[in-house]
Amino acid sequence: MTRIRKAACVGGGVIGGGWIARFLLNGIDVAVFDPHPEAQRIVGEVLDNARRAYGRMIQAPLCAEGKLSFHDDLATALDGAEYIQESVPEQLALKHRVLGQIEAHASPEALIGSSTSGFKPSELQEGAQHPERIFVAHPFNPVYLVPLVELVGSPANDEAALARAADIQRETGMMPLRVRKEIDAHIGDRLLEAVWREALWLVHDDVATTQEIDDVIRFSFGLRWAQMGLFETYRIAGGEAGMKHFIEQFGPALAWPWTKLMDVPEMTDELATKIGDQSDTQSGMHSIRELERIRDDNLIGIYQALKANDWGAGRTLREMEDRYFERAKAGAGAATPDYAAPLTLHRCRVSGDWLDYNGHMTEYRYLQVFGDATDAFLGHIGMDAAYRSAGRSVYTVESHIRHLAETSANTALTIRTTVLGHDAKRIRIHHEMLDEAGTLQATAEHMLMHVDTQAGRASPMAAPLTDRLAALSPGQRGLAAPDHAGRPIRDIGWPDPGAA
Ligand SMILES: NC(=O)C1=CN([C@@H]2O[C@H](COP(=O)(O)OP(=O)(O)OC[C@H]3O[C@@H](n4cnc5c(N)ncnc54)[C@H](O)[C@@H]3O)[C@@H](O)[C@H]2O)C=CC1
Ligand SMILES: C[N+](C)(C)CC(=O)CC(=O)[O-]
């Protein structure tokens, strides 16, 4: 895996903003160059939505965000960047100008990806000094959630550079697809354009409204496409007779004039207004940011369902979460912490949608944060995917949370963990949740049980857990247990029925 420290994003609009969020939330520093006077506000809003989405989607301890910086000149933005993503508007002359400027200031080893939806890499490379490191890295909106990135090179490209770019993207939870041959609009947009062209005709000819077309998609094949593509879906549609039978049955229909094929409706003012008005009726009651949040929540639900089946984009999400666990473990293990003090293994920020009707972090989010801290602790003592794949894991069997403050949105939380004791099968831990000022927000005490997941019963821990616990025990057992440790919820009795 290739993990970079710094990326630069040139252009911070819809797509550049998504790339910025993808890099930052995966712990990579990002320098932005975008002359738009409101670039910082726009990127900030995309980032807010991305943080909210990751808080809901990632069931692993998120890593510390990378550092975000905005620059007035391109040269300082590119300084030290190992990967550069260009996302300026889709005009070839502008892309040539910007790529030329990038080449003039970037470090010689830096990789340069372009978000272009339509241009071929050989077109982008025209006039370049080092065409071998300029390639298409075409993402899908929202870049921070949708995993696919089409990685397209020309014969001038250096394959090793493309492989390195794929590694960098994989490390941020993306799914790079190396497109075999360069072609206008790559793969995804060619497919989308065919559907888009037909949809425009259907509106133009008053066959359907924008709402009706969207309903046809989301209530039918759109549902299928998130989990199986065209070919696998049609294989099933061929029944037991199979794919060849399907082609024989439905192939001839392609020769009939079902669709308008390459014909495109003229984009007159009248058609643009018609589509704009219908779209306002359909969705105008929501702001763009609201629509983005609705879209993100739906995508996350789909992602989670696919993850449960370890299928398609759900598998990509699981691998992304494994990487977060690995990072938590590596971060914690980079320097052996002082075991004679509480361990700081998990940090996070309170997302705006974690609040209850009192405007404070809602109860189950405390358990989520403490659960993530427990996972970070277990990662620290060596419980990783390899350990679990041997049929061993750790379950939480008892928890006691104390809510001590009104934790509000955006608070940066630090969790300090202490081991209160352990035996062959159990570990008793205590977490303190602190805000930026060090004010205690909540505490949690948990009993963790080591289990043989195949037999479904408690079992003794094995190496490396046993060794790591042995290493940290002398320091941790010297720490005074908090006075509330082991305390049950106090019995307050009942009112005296005779009183009153
Ligand atoms: N919007 C979409 O759905 C998708 C767009 N793309 C591609 O991404 C690229 C960007 O598209 P969007 O983000 O939609 O456009 P956008 O208009 O939202 O953003 C473009 C940004 O580039 C900035 N910019 C203009 N000139 C610049 C320069 N010389 N240096 C630095 N920044 C400059 C603008 O201020 C603006 O913020 C295009 O190539 C497009 O084809 C790719 C996938 C999806
Ligand atoms: C409309 N578009 C061509 C810019 C779309 C894309 O490039 C991909 C997407 O996100 O749909």
Q: Which bin fits the share of residues in helices?
A: 40-55%
Enumerate the strands of the largest sheet in spatial order, edge to edge or round the barrel. 3-2-1-4-5-6-7-8
**What is the CATH superfamily label of the largest domain?**
NAD(P)-binding Rossmann-like Domain
Number of strands: 14
Unreliable spans are none
- Write down the domain tally: 3
Per DSSP, what share of the residues sits in E-state strands of 2 or more residues?
Answer: 15-25%
The bound ligands are:
1,4-dihydronicotinamide adenine dinucleotide, the ligand C[N+](C)(C)CC(=O)CC(=O)[O-]
Using the CA coordinates, give the radius of gyration. Answer: 27 Å
The 3D shape can be described as: globular
- Termini separation comes to 71 Å
Arithmetic mean of pLDDT: 93
The DSSP helix count reads 17
CATH class of the largest domain equals Alpha Beta
CATH topology category name of the largest domain: Rossmann fold
Largest sheet: 8 strands, mixed
Q: Give the name of the CATH architecture of the largest domain.
A: 3-Layer(aba) Sandwich
Pairing-aware structural class of the strands and helices? alpha/beta
Subcellular location: Cytoplasm
Family: Belongs to the 3-hydroxyacyl-CoA dehydrogenase family. L-carnitine dehydrogenase subfamily.
Function: Catalyzes the NAD(+)-dependent oxidation of L-carnitine to 3-dehydrocarnitine.
Catalytic activity: carnitine + NAD(+) = 3-dehydrocarnitine + NADH + H(+)
